[in-house]
Structure formats: structure tokens, C-alpha cells
Specification:
The chain is mainly α and 124 residues long. 29% of the residues lie in helices and 3% in strands. The radius of gyration is 31 Å and the shape is flat. The protein starts with a helix and ends in an 8-residue tail after the last helix.
Length: 124
């Protein structure tokens, strides 16, 4: 290097504004890293909804009409959208792996799954 460059008394700051800092430097242990999400219960307590008039809609007293769309049929085992229904057990399933699992279930488990869906049918 040239002699002038080596002898120059240029001091760079330790932290350049365009340089990314490490997360450990930015947020030491025990400090928050960003947003704090509130649960619905915390929001309701903070807003004090008991003092609002009863005729104004809020999270406590909101009413909506029934949906115009038919209810989605969900798989009784996985919870995914079910396209198929087992004719023997009346359980809904999403794919062939779930169907194999349904066919291997004993009748008492099938009855429990149907009871969860409020479609209890006595199987023979």
C-alpha cells in the first residue's frame, strides 16, 4: 500500500449505519424482540366492554346470520377437507392413507369419531 494511506489518521466508527447488526447485539437476553400479541381475552379486559351500550356490536354480543354457503365437510381423522365418505362406517376421509386407517379401526373407535361429529350411528 502507499505510504500516505498507511499513515492517514482515519478512524472508522465501530458501527456503520448501513451494516446489519447481529440480533444478539440488538436484543440482549431478556429483552423483547418485537411485537407482543394479545389474546382476545386480554383485549376484552383492556377495552372494558361491560361499560358499552348493549345495542352496539362488539366482540361480546356480536350476532351474525347463518352462512349462505353449505358447511365444509372435514375429515374425521385429520381435519383436512374431506372429499370422500366411507360407506361402511360413515366416516369422512381426505385421502387413501386415512381410508386405510379408518378400515383398520375397531367399531368402538368409529363410534367415538361419529359422536364427536354428532352423527352417532349404530353400526352393525
Amino acid at each position: 500500500m502507499e505510504a500516505e494511506v498507511v499513515e492517514a489518521d482515519i478512524l472508522l466508527p465501530s458501527l456503520l449505519p448501513f451494516k446489519r447488526t447481529q440480533m444478539s447485539e440488538k436484543y440482549p437476553k431478556g429483552h423483547a424482540r418485537g411485537r407482543h400479541w394479545k389474546h382476545l381475552k386480554q383485549i376484552l379486559q383492556a377495552e372494558n366492554y361491560q361499560n358499552f351500550p348493549a345495542d352496539e356490536p362488539n366482540y361480546i354480543n356480536i350476532e351474525s346470520p347463518p352462512s349462505m354457503y353449505p358447511a365444509k365437510k372435514l375429515c374425521d381423522i385429520t381435519g383436512f377437507e374431506a372429499r370422500y365418505t366411507d360407506p361402511r362406517t360413515n366416516l369422512r376421509y381426505a385421502n387413501i392413507e386415512v381410508f386405510k386407517r379408518i378400515r383398520s379401526l375397531p367399531n368402538e373407535y368409529v363410534q367415538r369419531y361419529l359422536a364427536l361429529r354428532n352423527a352417532a350411528v349404530v353400526l352393525k
